[in-house]
Specification:
Layout (H helix, E strand, L loop, with lengths): L7 E4 L7 E4 L1 H5 L1 H13 L8 E5 L3 H12 L2 E7 L7 E8 L2 E8 L8 E9 L3 H12 L3 E10 L14 E6 L1
């Protein structure tokens, strides 16, 4: 299925000069939503996965579906100050600023095989930060999985060395 018609460009969001890739048209179409989930799952074929991380916040949508289908645990990585238990953190750069991500300190056990899912790979700072969090806790990143990659921002360079799965590239 071609998912591109279900992605809407929003000019100057969240700040002037940024073209935001809006996935809500895909999410509201039941067939496209289901097929995208199946396609993302297909990117993980023959991988042993213990935990699936969803990155705050749009990454939660498909990551939870993937975890359920894979029989894996689901973990949220959130922006600073949003998790209620003990956390570890990692700062990162993104295409329109900087931020900090956090994960519960008990979310991953040593040796866990981890799939990281987010909706968009842009500059790669977010994905790189999540990979670092997984490794700080003793997990192994088996794949960084995305609905969309903005290739012109070269974000894949920051996660070079990790398996990458992507449905759409711009």
């Amino acid at each position: 299925m071609d998912f591109a018609p279900y992605i809407r460009d929003i000019e100057d969001f969240p700040k002037p000069g940024v073209v935001f890739k809006d996935i809500t048209p895909l999410l509201k179409d039941p067939k496209a939503f289901q097929k995208a989930g199946e396609a993302l799952l297909g990117l993980t074929a023959n991988m042993k996965i213990d935990k699936v991380i969803g990155v705050d916040s749009r990454g939660f949508i498909f990551a939870s579906m993937l975890a359920e289908k894979l029989g894996a645990g689901f973990i949220t990585v959130r922006k600073s100050g949003k998790l209620p238990f003990h956390t570890i953190s990692e700062s990162y750069d993104l295409e329109y600023g900087t931020g900090t991500l956090e994960i519960h300190s008990d979310a991953i056990e040593k040796g866990d095989k981890v799939l990281i899912h987010d909706d968009v790979l842009a500059t790669g700072g977010t994905a790189q930060a999540v990979c670092k969090l997984v490794e700080k806790l003793g997990g192994e990143v088996v794949q960084c999985n995305f609905l969309i990659e903005l290739t012109f921002l070269n974000g894949a360079d920051k996660i070079n060395g990790y398996d990458k799965g992507v449905l759409l590239q711009y």
